[in-house]
Amino acid sequence: MTAQNNHAQFGLLGRTLAHSWSPYIHKQLGSYPYALFEKEPDEVASFVAHGAWRGLNVTIPYKQVVCNLSTRKSMLVELTGAANTLVKQADGSIFAENTDVLGFTMMLLEFLATNNCIPAVDIDDIIQVMTTAPKGYKSNLLAHHKVVICGNGGASRAVQTALGLLGASMVVADTQGATSYDEIMRAHTDATIMVNTTPVGMYPACPQSILSLEQLRAFSSLKAVVDVVYNPLRSGLCMAAEALGIPYVQGLYMLVAQALFSSNLFLDTHHDVARIRPIVQQICANEQSIALIGMPGVGKTTCGRALAALCGKTFVDLDAEFTAMYAMPPHEFIQQYGEDAFREKEHAVCAKVAKEPSRVIACGGGIVCREENYACLHQQAAIVLLTRPLELLSLYKRPLSASVGVEELARRRMPRYTAWADYTCALDATPQESARHILACITH
């Protein structure tokens, strides 16, 4: 996060901006210094008219307001009724553009082409046409695709504009509108693309989903799921798509792409679109957590501390968090109240911790006993299974290992450990060496 700086040439205008990644992205693109301008509604007009800025991005709730404060609007702004980019011209006039439309188009077409939903296309050429074409332009690139769009707010208008220009058939579902999600599911299960434009599932209300796994399953013709939510790294909707084997993408690529198009206008330049992917990958690396799972006593805490120190992330031990939250360590809680009561409260701890980015999380050995813990961890983290020969596992303060037996616990839990894990690491080295091995697996 970047503090407000009313003398910066570039920045983001909005009302609540504490978790914005825009300063980092624009620093990589060269449109910097880049500040966060948090303004109340009665401050916006004066700031736009008299502020010492050269280029502004605009986010909710001001994308429609600034349209009326601009001197000249692009075709995309005229079509959407919203602007997310303002550029102050040499004569003091203000040009308004909607690079959300361009960023969504870039993300969607690259994603669809990669997954063989459309032929390979020259996306640069398409973007050029979209920014220069007269009103009424429409391509036929997506003419054979029916798209269900969840939500009808500001983000939806940008998505609808992009899809309209690409020739798609669209159905808009909104809980406030005449067409409900239930009606959509009954009448349009032949849709080939689904786009969520609502904030459902966005941090910190994650990993919620606009549709359940079973509701999504009803769309039997889906070839792609797109979610404009970009935090957490995997939204609830995208995790449901993943479980059903449906290709999915969410909005981080769009966020960086729209910033690149804004930066082009700010700097009067033409960034190579190849710059988008490395910035996306770096943000993912910075924000991704690492969750360590495995048998009780395998060494998750010791290895986790070394790993957090190595990669500069915050270390969190779920058992320690449980103790702090409920004023009793897990082994005592289990002995006093039983395992079922412990698992219920352990899930609450997991849900609270796992939604935060850039953590190394040492999970309790039984975290896999509750299936819903998987979504909590998977939304932000790479899940790493740590293994060690069973005879080397410690039984100290581990009542289940002592009462049930290590071999029986392993028999019950290992299938889930294996199913949950993105990576597996055998702990046959020092914690520091194991940490380096884990980090190498995740980053390559």
Automatic annotation (TrEMBL):
Reactions this protein catalyses: shikimate + ATP = 3-phosphoshikimate + ADP + H(+)
Main function: Catalyzes the specific phosphorylation of the 3-hydroxyl group of shikimic acid using ATP as a cosubstrate.
UniProt entry tagged with the keyword Lipoprotein: no
Binding-site positions, Mg(2+): T301
Subcellular location per the Swiss-Prot or TrEMBL entry: Cytoplasm
Cofactor section: Mg(2+)
Pathway participation: Metabolic intermediate biosynthesis; chorismate biosynthesis; chorismate from D-erythrose 4-phosphate and phosphoenolpyruvate: step 4/7; Metabolic intermediate biosynthesis; chorismate biosynthesis; chorismate from D-erythrose 4-phosphate and phosphoenolpyruvate: step 5/7
Superkingdom of source: Bacteria
GO molecular-function term, one example from the UniProt record: shikimate kinase activity
Organism classification: Bacteria, Bacillati, Actinomycetota, Coriobacteriia, Coriobacteriales
Keyword Magnesium assigned: yes
Protein name from the UniProt record: Shikimate kinase
Record-stated family: Belongs to the shikimate kinase family.
Subunit structure: Monomer.
